[in-house]
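Quick check before the chapter quiz. The format below is the same one you will see on the exam, so make sure you can read both the input and the output lines.
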Amino acid sequence: MLFNSFSYALFLPIVFILYWLIPQKFRWIILLMSSYYFYASWGPQYIAIILLTTIISYTAALLMKSRQKNRLYPKTILILSVTICVAILFFFKYFNFFTENLSFVLQKLSIPIQPFTLKLALPIGISFYIFQTISYLVDVYRGDIRAEKDFGIYAVYISFFPKVMQGPIERGKKLLPQLHTHQSFQYTQASYGLKLMAWGYFKKLVLADGLSVYVNQVYNDLPSYQGFSLILATFFFAIQLYCDFSGYTDIALGSAKILGINLTQNFKAPYFASSIKDFWGRWHISLSSWLRDYIYIPLGGNRVGKIRHAANIMITFLISGLWHGASWNYILWGGIHGIYQIIEGFFPWNSKTSPFQKNKHLHFLLCFITIPFTFLLVCFAWIFFRAATMQEAFYVLKNMFIGITHVSVYLQDCALQMGLTFNHLIFNCLPILLLFIYDLISLKTDVITFISRKRFFIRWPIYIFILLVILLFSEKGVTTEFIYMQF
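Here is the expected output.
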């Protein structure tokens, strides 16, 4: 069941009505049943995996709590339970990748062996909920949160339907208390949730799905394209991926909000980042903060020597790349971002004591330069994220500037190759412009709250305009999956 499907359009109102009609003490049952139904819609077999993960982490947390005086026992339980969770993720997501690469290495060493692979379907959202269970177990061990005694509440925490497929990766200290708290229906909160969902649908249906036509056209047949077509397709992919993932997140946050539950904000105008470090403070925030708290800081963070610090950064980003997929493309993509951030640390203007940070005018001038440059660096890395193989990624790099010495021909060839006309460009650029205006304003204020406070004759034309744009610009009768579902 996709967020952008007719099924979800029926599912969510039913859950909403039932949730607010029944007494508070039984609402977790509605959330659990609806979450498992939602998840089972992708395949009933997946229920066994998420249920197994839930039982293991729930039991382990209680065992750790029961033996807090003996620190060795909780640590053993933590290591064992986390190892099992990681093993489950490894088996379904990385087993074939590991065996294929092991066979390749052995064959290079003249040891004849055939790769042993399994035909496994990757359970939807497994990377997200496994990371969530790991953070919960570590937080219980550290004493940051108490082990949840109510199995039903904990099962909802793991499987809550708005975030189970693509996050955000929620922490126990934020979501679990909300599942216990008495919730009363608030019109303003529900209204905000619906508006946030509408903005999410705009990003997904209009921008992500619209741009995917051109991105897939080029990246699915790379040998047929060269020059500016490759650059434009990469730029379109950068916008497509952002709108696809953040659009999902907005719909997820909005769906939870109409049920009185606040999930973690996952994006903060990432393409207005002034550095790679700033980008990762704005992009997939729940993952980047997870990697910071459970990988980077335990490794020593920046409290070590320069070489060790650089190694900590690189390890963290390589894990980030591997988390995204069992492919060297993703690992290299993560490594590129690691290199970016290591190099970035040598530039003095990033220091808090730098005059560029202290002086408002110098800081504005610096951002005017660094924001576009950061965006270009991010787009360069996206090539390895989108290309199906390393060979295809290097093809893009090798052929993207062919013919650039004749600018007019360079641009005309792109239009001919991609079948783009001036009207097509305007049709796609206007929604992109609207997206960037929204993100720019969001740097200073909550756009939805700002519009909601305006008078009736101001805010309603804006709502109607957004709905008309969704209706006019979106592909009719087409239901496309969200990109991050594959992770």
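If your answer matched, good. The longest helix spans residues 72-108.
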